[in-house]
Amino acid sequence: MGVPVPVGVVALDPVLEAGTRSTLLACPELAVCEPADARVAVLTVDRLGPAELDMVRSTRAHGQRPAVVLVAGALASGDALHALAAGARGLLPRREADASRLAHAVLAAAQDDCTVPTELLEQVLDRPEHGRTGWAGGALSDRERSVLRLVADGHETAEIAQRLAYSPRTVTTVVHDITQRFRLRNRAHAVAYALRAGLL
């Protein structure tokens, strides 16, 4: 066995944090540590909303920029898209987060791989899209592709602007143009479409 993967726990609820820590301590291939020193952070939440998505982004931005595995009380297909767009590398419903599955998700995230439960992935991929023109009817410019790649990595508008040497307004306009042209709901929807079509 190699060196254990350093993993931290992030939770708003101390009971959720304690339960997650206890589960991770049962995995010899993992070493529980402070989130700032972690290679992977396990974020445990009751539900997934704007505050929790901000936690995914902020966790990704701190310390060693750990990969994030999100464990949630309930995950709908729309939540999965938002979580992946925010930068999560693994998704697990809390009822399925036993030591074995949680360890598997953490180890995959440590190798920059992504784990999503099969039934949740099927919901995402089979979800009907209303009013869609489809990617086949149009293409993305290099600039649009560059912006969407960074959105998919969970970067905010200001970070994208800095990385690509654009103004924040230009980044906002690019994303707006994509969502309008293809009749998409938001940034996460645009990323999901592009990923499904193999454009990112």
Specify the CATH class of the largest domain.
Alpha Beta
Low-confidence stretches: 127-137
CATH superfamily of the largest domain: Response regulator
* Largest sheet descriptor: 5 strands, parallel
| Bulk shape | globular
Placed side by side, the strands forming the largest sheet appear as 2-1-3-4-5
Mean pLDDT, to the nearest integer, reads 82
What separation lies between the terminal Cα atoms? Answer: 35 Å
> Could you say what the CATH architecture of the largest domain is?
3-Layer(aba) Sandwich
How many DSSP H or I helices? 9
β-strand number: 5
Rg calculated over all Cα atoms:
17 Å
Give the count of structural domains.
2
Q: How do the SSEs run, as a string of H and E?
A: EHEEHEHEHHHHHH
Structural class: alpha/beta
Q: Strand percentage, roughly? A: 5-15%
What fraction, in percent, of the residue positions are helical? 40-55%
CATH topology of the largest domain: Rossmann fold
Structure description:
Pfam families: GerE. Residues 133-198 form the HTH luxR-type domain. This is Response regulator transcription factor. There is one protein chain. The protein has 200 residues and is α/β, with parallel strands linked by helices. It folds into two domains: 5-126, Response regulator (Rossmann fold, 3-Layer(aba) Sandwich); 142-197, Winged helix-like DNA-binding domain superfamily/Winged helix DNA-binding domain (Arc Repressor Mutant, subunit A, Orthogonal Bundle), CATH 1.10.10. The chain contains nine helices and five strands; from the N terminus they run βαββαβαβαααααα. The protein has helices at 14-25, 50-61, 77-86, 99-110, 118-126, 142-152, 157-164, 168-181, 187-196, and strands at residues 5-11, 30-32, 40-45, 67-72, 88-93. It has a five-stranded parallel beta sheet with strand order 2-1-3-4-5, sandwiched between helices. Helix 1 (14-25) links the parallel strand 1 (5-11) and strand 2 (30-32). It starts with a strand and ends with a helix. Mean pLDDT is 82; it is low at 127-137.
